[in-house]
Amino acid sequence: MNPLFPLFLGLSLSMDAFAVSVAMPFCVPTLSMKQICRVAGAFGFFQALMPLLGWGLGNLASKAIAPFDHWVAFALLGFIGGKMVLEGLRNDEECDTRSDPTSGWTLLTLAVGTSIDALAVGFSFVALELNVWSTVAIIGAVTFSLSWVGMVGGRQIGRFLGKRMEVLGGLVLIGIGLKILFEHLSK
Predict the structure, then answer these.
(1) 137 Cβ contact list (under 8 Å, min separation 6)
(2) What φ, ψ does residue 50 adopt, rounded to 5°?
(3) What is the pTM of this model?
(4) Are 147 and 14 in contact (CB under 8 A)?
(5) Engineering a disulfide at 115: which of 39, 46, 119, 174 sits with its beta carbon 3.0 to 4.6 angstroms away?
(6) How far is residue 99's CA from residue 77's CA, in Å, rounded to a whole number?
(7) Average pLDDT over residues 144-159
């Protein structure tokens, strides 16, 4: 396995959280460092936790899915990547300025919602034969970093890149799924 793989996986999985982080400054006029760190921490934590949970569940089912695990990984990554591409192409961003999205249930919902994809990707870890602990640590650190950058530079980044980053992340996940499938079929 390529040592850069966990980094690329972390980058692609963090695109949902990055997109939300970029949009958040438009909904919260003045952000404190506490709010920025709280959002980045929540996104990073759940983005690392979910693939770990998926890997655990995948291990429980690994004997049953071993003969076709590459197809499962391809289907999950393709579906999630396709969903990210479609969401990135939609223009339905609105924000509720009456509540603070950097705390409470709103933040929890955003953190879990942006990391559900990572849960499904965690199932594919069984087929990938990688170091799960370092991979989830990298995914969490990358997500924390990108979310922090998104929050700090959200207004400028949002004007320049917008939702194109989510489309790029989805395309990377589809590419990873194809790579897994082709590697297993060529054996």
Answers:
(1) 48
(2) -60, -45
(3) 0.71
(4) yes
(5) 46
(6) 34
(7) 82
